[in-house]
Structure formats: structure tokens, C-alpha cells
Amino acid sequence: MAASSTDAALAVTRLGLGARPGEIARVAADPRAWALAQIRPEGAAQPAGTFASADQRMAAFLDYQADRGQPATADAEAVRLARQAARRALVEDTAQAFLARTQLGATTADGFAERWALFWANALTVSAVKFDSGAFIDLCEREAIRPNVFGRFEDLVVAAEQHPAMLLYLDQARSTGPGSQAGARRKVGLNENLAREMLELHTVGADAGYTQVDVTELARALTGWSIPRPQDRQAPAGRRRARQAAEPGPNGFVFRANIHEPGPRTVMGRTYAQAGVAQGEAILRDLARHPATARRLSRRIAAHFVSDTPPEPLVARLERAWTRSDGDLAQVARALIEATETWTPQATKIKTPYEFIVSTHRALDVPPQRIQPLRQALVEMGQPLFAAPSPEGWPDTAADWAGPDALVKRLNWARTAAETARTADIVATANDALGDRLSQRTGLAVARAESRTEALTLLLMSPEFQRR
Fold it and tell me: Which residue from 198, 214, 262, 293 has the fewest beta carbons nearer than 10 Å?
């Protein structure tokens, strides 16, 4: 299909994160090919920088936990200060990782792959509203999400659910089977949070017909999915108890056989034999392959990329691609890019604050340099870094982001950005940022503005720039 004069602008502002100077012209020859070329087996690009490994971050977290459990002594104040310092260090590591992620968004030539990765990170939300999960949230995105976004969905969801960030966020790390070896001894209980969100938000959805019994059965199957504990480091290597208590897996995941609820489990009509860690994995993979999962997540993809009320033909196209490929997300991404509905000229999606900031940095060709201004801007606009308000993730509709107060906050930030920008030719910046999507009205307003600051503020707050 031949590209229209607006397809290049749509490609980089709708499928991507906004246009950098000259980018629309560079992809104009074949906008679809530009997006399709970003679908790679290795997944989405990683933020640049040197970050703690999973083992290093886990060691720091276990040190923090060990200090937290110290009894009151004469050295209690020293312990308290050490714990505060450890907590600050973990928070700062995460913040710097967020800055690196934003810098990647502001500079990457692969805007579609980056948006696709951010979509899946939000669909499988982990939030820093809990400190413990926040300590691993950047690692979850780098280790579980980005490498798997163009692979099979079942591999993506297993990697995400087993990551320490998810296990801590949804209180799975301590969930104990009442009939397990440890449960019978300690009288500790089952936690259903991860099981419930697996079913409701991460796979089949609330309309798929599962029951509370299914939630409980899945929660029992997931017992034993955990993370290391400070006391594990003190257990002599090779002891039978240590081997039973902590069987290490990828990225800091641990399976604790001694808290796994024994016996077969039946979830959504299918029975799974007792098989340790493999029992929960088998159930999750079946949920990932369920037709209801394909239907629900295809609709969510269409709603994110195209419209809050996605076209039914687009949803159907994505669902067919998902089903025929057995959940191959590369095939689903191709179906999205090749769909006629993806390229409708009317832009209806409102940018989130993060998208607004990233697209502004792209338009100005200046990546963010410091975390504090970025952190403050996102807090003021209602999307604090790595802190989605619930397991549902950040909202994704115009109604959530286009209220009067929200627009005032955007205007204040846009004016500040305009005052500090070094862009000399705002008219050229407007054409580079929006291409054929730039309306005559906005173009005239920018050209006739009384100052460079006013002109750039008008551009950033224009309907074309705020929508994608």
C-alpha cells in the first residue's frame, strides 16, 4: 500500500514517541517498513548505562531487610541510619534507571519498539508505590519485559510474574500453602493477590468465566514462588533444608518447595498434577494461550495505539494474528502496523504526561539530563515515575489525562520548557515535530507569536502535539 503524505507523521507520532528533527522526512519513503524493521527477536533496546545486576540489587535489598529486622540495642540509632541510607541508595538507583529509560525514549530511532515495550510494561504493571517492589522495578522492565516483547506472550508473562518485583508487589513472596511442610508447622497463610491479577488483568480478564474457586486454586499452585531471604545466606551450602527451601531460578526468582501446597489443582476446568514450580507455570502458560486472553489484550493494544474506542475490525485483525501465531507478539505487532485502521488521519489519543515530556524532548532534540526536574514534572502532572496507582497500570484514555487541572499543569511545564529551550526557529521545529499533521491554525499561531517562548508554548499545547 502506498504511503500518503501524512503516514510518516502518523508513524513517528502515533506508533512512536514523537518526531525528532528530520525524522519524519527520513521515514517518509516507507513508514510501515520503518516500523516493521523494529520488530526484532532480541526485543526492545535497553537503556544505556551501568546498572546493578539482579544479584547486586538483591544483595543490597537483603542487606536492607536484615537491618530492618535488627532488635533494639544501644546501636539502634546506627542501625536505623544505615537502613535509611540503604533505602535511599535503592531509591536513587531506581530513579537513575528511570532517567536512562527516559533518555532512551527521547533519542531512540526505534520509536515503535520503545512504545511497544512501554505498553507491555504497563499491561504487566509493577509499581513503586510499595518500596520493596520499587527496588526491583527497573530490573523487571530490563530483564523480563524488554527482551520478550517480540516473542511469545506466554514467555513474557511467565518472566514478568516470576520476577522479584512482581512477587513483592502482589505479596506473593510470602504466600504459603496451609498444607505445605512449612504451613502446617507455622500456621501461615495463602495470599491470592498474584493469582487474582494473573486472571483478571494479565491474561483472560474478568469476563472469561473464572470463579473465586479458580483464584484460590491458582494461588495454591503458585505457593513457593518467592525471592531470597537474608537467612538463606546463612544456611550452610549443600544442606538438604537449604536446597528444599530455595531453588534458584532466573533474575532472583526462587522456588521454595517447603511452602508449596501439595496436590493437584484445577483451574478453569483443567486439572494440573502436582509438579512443584512447574505446576504454576503450566497453568499460567495455558491462561496465556486462552482465547479470552487473545481477545482482551488485542482490544487493549488497539485502544492504546489507535483510539479509546478501538475499531472492531482492528481488534478482530489483532486477535486473529494472536490466535493463528499462538501468541507470537511479533506477528501481532505486524498486524497492527499493517492494519488500515492504524493509519486513520484523525488523532484521538491524548498523550500521558510521560509521553508528553518525552515527545517534547524529541522535538527539541535535547534529552533530559537530570532526574530531579523530570521527577518533579511527572509528580505535578500526575504520573510519578514508576508509580502506577494500581495493578491496572496507568490509565490510557483522554478522560484520564485531559481534565482542566491536568491541562493547566501541562501548560505550566510547557511554558518552563519553552523558556529554557535553545531552539531558534520555532516554525521549523513545528514542521519537524508534526509534519503534515500541523494544522494551518497552529502554524499561523506559532508564526505570529510575539516571542519565541510564546511560540513554543503554543506548539507544545496545540491539539496536534497533545494528541497522537
Answer: 262
